Structures are given as structure tokens and as C-alpha cells.
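Hi there, hope your week has been kind to you so far. Would you mind checking whether the C-alpha cells look sensible for this chain? I owe you a coffee for this, so here goes:
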Amino acid sequence: MSPVRDRLFPHWELPEVAKNVYEAMFIFDSNRFARDPGGVSGAIATLVQKFGGEMLASRLWEERRLAYPINGQRKGTYWLSYFRLESRELVNFNRETSLNESIMRSLVLKVDPRIVDALVSHALQSPQEARARREAAPVVAVPVEAGNAAE
């Protein structure tokens, strides 16, 4: 909504822009996350809401040693988020995440609409629920034919 555009073309309306679902993985500075976990992780939800989006799921993935140091840090806290956001706001969202000092790296991917429900419901499960579901799943043995066996 540019003031110049509004003044020159007041009757023009912007077309509807699709709200896509995005999956984002953030690597937080582990030291900052340890001091203020709610504040660091809450910054993601705040950014999504700032740009008119809706947070679908957001949770801790894991804390692990990094393959190489980032900003002098050897450990990072991985945070997984799913959110709905207008596609034109994604550039602004990415810029804000790159300016946030608690976020060392981020990756945002567009999710195929056919699998959104499955991914979000899986992300909302606790680690204990996911482990129990894997352990309860039956193991299926696939017979190998003699002619197709690896030699």
C-alpha cells in the first residue's frame, strides 16, 4: 500500500494473494536459548503474526553440535515451525529472521498443500508419542525371491 500508488491510482485494488503453508527450520544460538527459551522461540510466532500469518505448529527439534562453527558457536538449538503466510510477505519474514541475533541460520520451504495436515499433526506430537507410535507399528517382512536377491 504505497502512498504514491494510492494517490495516483486510488481505484486500483491489489489482487488476492494465496496464503501458503511453510515449513521452517531455525538454528538458534544455544546460549541465548538456554537463558530465555520462551523469548527466543516466541520471536518466531511474533514475526509470523507481524506479517499477517498464522502459526500452525512450533516446537523444539533438538540441540546438537554443529558441523562447523557459526558465529563462533559450536552448538545450536534446532527449532521446527509450520505457519501460513502470504507469499509476498515471505521476503520480509526472511529479512527479519536474518536480522534477529538469536537466529544463526534459517531455512523456509513451501509445503505441498496435499501433505500439510499430516506434517502439522506429526509436528504437534510430543517426542514420547512419536516414539510410542513407531514402536507399536508392526514390522512387515518382505519376501525376497531367489532370482531377485542381491548377490
Observations:
- The chain has one domain: 17-136.
